[in-house]
């Protein structure tokens, strides 16, 4: 099952994304749906704040996993930050990194924007075990038990924010 929707760059777009996720993932455990909705809305908020463009959300669901992509046409590259407890912002990608099983960024082939993506298991717990670098997909993976589409993602980071590819 796949759902694709484009959103205008408005401050209420992250809430609209959460509603889309809840509708698209009906029937999955509430914890997973809530986690995916939180991560997708964080990515939407990043687009609204930093890219300042309309954006498209793609949600793919199969029996094993949920894959979400948020694509925009803005410049710049997302940066995984480690904000202090007093910093009011900067936690969006950190939240995605901690709650997802894998995530990454790929550039648009025409260099007009980028897509930030993440996956979570459709059943069981979300989030990677500490130190589980193998769960971050990047180019050159041996595809150890993961669908091919994850192994072909060209850019990913480890938990410290270091680029893996």
Describe the fold and architecture:
There is one protein chain. With 165 residues, the protein is α+β, with helices and mostly antiparallel strands. The chain has one domain: Heat Shock Protein 90, CATH 3.30.565. It has 4 helices and 5 strands, in the order βααββαββα. Strands 1-2-3-5-4 form a 5-stranded antiparallel beta sheet, with helices on one face. β4 (102-107) and β5 form a beta hairpin. The model is unreliable at 128-165 (pLDDT under 50).
Radius of gyration: 15 Å
Can you tell me the CATH topology? Heat Shock Protein 90
Strand order of the largest sheet: 1-2-3-5-4
* Total beta strand runs: 5
- Discrete helix count: 4
N→C terminal distance: 29 Å
CATH superfamily: Histidine kinase-like ATPase, C-terminal domain
Which oligomeric form is depicted? single chain
Q: In percent, how helical is the residue content?
A: 25-40%
Q: Which structural category do the helix and sheet elements fall into?
A: alpha+beta
CATH architecture: 2-Layer Sandwich
* Shape descriptor: globular
CATH class: Alpha Beta
The domain count comes to 1
Topology pattern, helix = H, strand = E: EHHEEHEEH
Unreliably modeled segments: 128-165
Mean pLDDT: 78
Task: Name the features.
single chain, 165 residues, alpha+beta, Heat Shock Protein 90, 5-stranded antiparallel β-sheet, 5 strands, 28% helix, disordered C terminus
Short description:
Helix content is 28%, strand content 21%. The protein is α+β, with helices and mostly antiparallel strands and 165 residues long.
């Amino acid at each position: 099952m796949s759902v694709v929707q484009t959103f205008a760059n408005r401050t209420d777009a992250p809430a609209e994304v959460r509603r889309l996720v809840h509708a698209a993932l009906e029937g999955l455990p509430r914890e997973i749906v809530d986690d995916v909705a939180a991560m997708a809305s964080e990515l939407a908020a990043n687009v609204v704040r930093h890219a300042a463009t309309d954006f498209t959300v793609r949600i793919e669901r199969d029996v094993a996993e949920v894959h979400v992509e948020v694509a925009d046409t803005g410049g710049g590259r997302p940066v995984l930050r480690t904000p202090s407890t007093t910093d009011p912002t900067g936690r969006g990608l950190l939240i995605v990194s901690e709650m997802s099983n894998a995530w990454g960024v790929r550039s648009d082939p025409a260099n007009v924007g980028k897509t930030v993506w993440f996956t979570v298991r459709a059943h069981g717990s979300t989030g990677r075990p500490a130190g589980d670098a193998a769960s971050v997909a990047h180019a050159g993976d041996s595809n150890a038990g993961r669908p091919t589409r994850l192994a072909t993602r060209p850019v990913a980071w480890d938990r410290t924010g270091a680029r893996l590819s």
